[in-house]
Amino acid sequence: MSMFSSPKVIFWFSFGSLLFFGCDTASKRENEKIKILQSGKVIETNFGDCDTTTNAGVAIKVSLWEPSDSTKAARVIRGSLAKKLIQRINSYADSASIAANPAAVASVKGAFEVFQKNYLDFKKQMPDAPGCWQVDLKGDTVMTTSKALFYQLDHYAFTGGAHPNSFRSFHAFDAKTGNEREMKTFVTDSVALLKLVEQHFRKLEKLGPEADLEQSGYFLLNHRFFMPANYVFTSNGLLFYYNPYEIAPYVRGGIEFTITYAELGELVKKDQIF
Length: 274
Known about the structure:
Number of domains: 3
Structural class: alpha+beta
Distance between the termini: 51 Å
CATH superfamily of the largest domain: Fervidobacterium nodosum Rt17-B1 like
Strand content: 25-35%
CATH architecture of the largest domain: 2-Layer Sandwich
Shape: flat
Radius of gyration: 25 Å
Helix content: 25-40%
Largest sheet: 6 strands, mixed
Strand order of the largest sheet: 1-2-3-4-5-6
CATH class of the largest domain: Alpha Beta
């Protein structure tokens, strides 16, 4: 009798095959999940035009990386990014203008039309006012893992005044559901992290532990140091970014530094990041 004819041998052979197949399938699913978050394309959308000859006009420029597969998670992420773009453009319009144009909250094109109308109304009141109105929005991945997609959205705008303004934000999306997560949910001890951030900030700015930050020209919250509103997980560690005006004058631009995972230790939930 062949050794494969034994009921026991057949059972264990079959069980082993199923176990191997199950592990192989799980591995493929994990690889597919990573591939999903790394598979995407850059979408470029432009509305209007800024005439550099007459120094007049209104324009919206968008360059956005987004996941291109057909999974639910990817669809949720795309929807979330589109919503953020619309909100950014509508931040230059008043609530009455938006209410009068329902399309403004439905698409980038609709938001642009309200933005353009406000510009034209402004030019009617101040026809000699120089300068275009322009908003540039750029989005790209910072890091993708099997657990999350970390994303950067840059916002540049000029709507008159002494200089343009820029703003950077970071976002985290769950790889399985596509839902956005607050960055602080990956942190285990916010108090200890704040102390570490201040140490790195002072080192970057060449300030000793006893130096008064306000007297040194920095903006504090209730006379206390604070973490930036935007920080993100990268392959090298946790990157902190203070936007212009957030903690220092505009001329300083953005202030950024990275704390390595080795130094962060147990302050972050690495098992939810990688």
